[in-house]
């Protein structure tokens, strides 16, 4: 039935408008997604020509141990993420899940999604990180703690804030409710900007006894310039 519907009602590529069958993106746009296949800093996931730890992480090591980012946050990925978060286009999440599950499985014990404050969760109706974490945990054969961390502070939007202000903005925002002592935790999120929020979450998890914290994110915002 799916192939019949696809033949009569083909989907258009979200990026270029060409026919894409049942896929969100056509084959050409999928292969040219920003940052695909680039070498990255293993600590923060930023694009790095040598693939080693970047200067920023050497100077100011984050609280998390590793980050695997699949892509850079740019067109058309930025529009797809916004369509999911603000347009409730849950169908695009299958592309994100495919991109994330194509990576090597983490050596971990538990999966935790980046939590939303209850007011934002109520306004949006869903947590996009949880929508990614559930199928990823199933694919990796790991338990997922959807409510393992509570976001107690409804922080101001990080966009537009300088790095130091971003770190201060999220300080003390998280409360760990899951038992993570001695566990290797994988945190799932859609986009990593400066890493300040993920670093604060990792700090909270390690404060609760987590042995290590690895981030799995769909996209990493490139540094300016």
Write structural notes for this entry.
- This protein is of the alpha/beta class and 225 residues long.
- It has 2 domains: 1-32, no CATH class; 38-220, Rossmann fold.
- It has helices at residues 2-8, 27-31, 55-59, 77-85, 93-101, 118-124, 128-140, 163-170, 196-207; strands at 11-12, 19-21, 66-72, 110-113, 149-151, 174-176, 184-192, 212-220.
- The chain has a 4-stranded parallel beta sheet. A two-stranded antiparallel ribbon has the order 1-2. Strands 5-6 form a two-stranded antiparallel ribbon.
- Strand 1 (11-12) and strand 2 (19-21) form a beta hairpin.
- Helix 5 (93-101) runs parallel beside helix 7 (128-140).
- The longest helix has 13 residues, at 128-140.
- It is globular, with a radius of gyration of 18 Å.
Summarize the structure.
Helices cover 33% and strands 18% of the residues.
Task: Itemize the secondary structure elements and their pairings.
Elements: H1 2-8, E1 11-12, E2 19-21, H2 27-31, H3 55-59, E3 66-72, H4 77-85, H5 93-101, E4 110-113, H6 118-124, H7 128-140, E5 149-151, H8 163-170, E6 174-176, E7 184-192, H9 196-207, E8 212-220
Parallel strand pairs: 3-8, 4-7, 7-8
Antiparallel strand pairs: 1-2, 5-6
CATH architecture call of the largest domain: 3-Layer(aba) Sandwich
Number of domains: 2
CATH topology of the largest domain: Rossmann fold
CATH class of the largest domain, named Alpha Beta
| Main sheet makeup | 4 strands, parallel
If you average the pLDDT, what whole number results? 89
User: Order of SSEs, N→C?
Assistant: HEEHHEHHEHHEHEEHE
pLDDT below 50 for ≥5 consecutive residues: which ranges?
1-9
* Cα end-to-end separation: 48 Å
Fraction in helix = 25-40%
Shape: globular
Strand order of the largest sheet: 3-8-7-4
Global Rg: 18 Å
> Proportion of β residues?
15-25%
Supply the number of helical segments. Answer: 9
Number of strands: 8
Structural class: alpha/beta
């Amino acid at each position: 039935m799916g192939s019949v519907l696809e033949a009569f009602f083909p989907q258009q590529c979200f990026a270029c408008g060409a026919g894409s069958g049942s896929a969100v993106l056509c084959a050409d746009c999928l292969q040219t997604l920003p940052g695909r296949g680039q070498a990255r800093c293993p600590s923060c996931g930023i694009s790095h020509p040598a693939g080693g730890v970047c200067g920023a992480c050497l100077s100011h090591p984050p609280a998390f141990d590793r980050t695997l980012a699949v892509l850079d946050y740019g067109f058309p990925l930025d529009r797809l993420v916004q369509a999911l978060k603000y347009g409730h286009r849950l169908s695009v999440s299958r592309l994100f899940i495919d991109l994330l599950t194509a990576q090597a499985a983490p050596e971990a014990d538990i999966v935790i999604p980046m939590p939303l404050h209850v007011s934002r969760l109520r306004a949006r109706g869903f947590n996009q990180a949880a929508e990614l974490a559930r199928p990823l945990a199933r694919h990796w054969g790991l338990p997922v703690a959807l409510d393992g961390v509570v976001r107690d502070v409804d922080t101001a939007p990080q966009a537009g804030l300088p790095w130091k202000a971003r770190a201060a903005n999220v300080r003390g925002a998280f409360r760990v409710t899951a038992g993570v002592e001695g566990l290797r935790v994988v945190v799932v999120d859609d986009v990593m900007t400066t890493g300040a929020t993920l670093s604060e979450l990792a700090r909270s998890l390690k404060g609760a006894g987590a042995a290590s914290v690895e981030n799995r994110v769909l996209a990493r915002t490139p540094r300016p310039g």
